[in-house]
Amino acid sequence: MNMRAERDIALCAIANGTIKSKVMNAMIQKRIPYAEEWHKVPILQRRKFEGAKEVCVVITHNEQAEEAKVQIQKLNEEIRSRVYFDLKGLK
């Protein structure tokens, strides 16, 4: 389901539910608007996304994207390393 408004962009993909919750909480705390889209991961791209068949793609307003990235980078390395900004290959 595509929930994007005209000025929204796909920010990142997350394959793990716990990591997704932590990223969403960080965005909520800073009042950064977001939505979710679920994308199927082609077989040849699954290694890149922890073997997941489907990933959550985080959508935000293009004017909030840099602040969202800053907030994600402030999270610990275990979380940051599992947030994928390269969305090439997703359906």
SSE layout:
Layout lengths: L7 E7 L2 H13 L5 E6 L13 E8 L3 H9 L3 H4 L2 E2 L7
Antiparallel strand pairs: 1-3, 1-4, 2-3
Which geometry do the CA atoms define?
globular
Rg from C-alpha positions? 12 Å
Which strand order spans the largest sheet, edge to edge or round the barrel? 2-3-1-4
Strand content: 25-35%
Task: Give the H and E element order.
Answer: EHEEHHE
Largest sheet: 4 strands, antiparallel
**Spans with pLDDT under 50 lasting ≥5 residues?**
none
Strand pairing plus helix content: what structural class?
alpha+beta
Number of DSSP helical runs: 3
Return the average pLDDT rounded to an integer: 93
Helix content: 25-40%
Termini separation? 12 Å
Count every beta strand, where a strand is a DSSP E run of 2 or more residues: 4
Question: Explain this structure to me?
Answer:
- This protein is of the alpha+beta class and 91 residues long.
- Helices cover 29% and strands 25% of the residues.
- The protein is built from 3 helices and 4 strands.
- It has helices spanning 17-29, 65-73, 77-80, and strands at 8-14, 35-40, 54-61, 83-84.
- It has a 4-stranded antiparallel sheet, with helices on one face.
- The radius of gyration is 12 Å and the shape is globular.
- The N and C termini lie close together (12 Å).
- The relative contact order is 0.30.
- The mean pLDDT is 93.
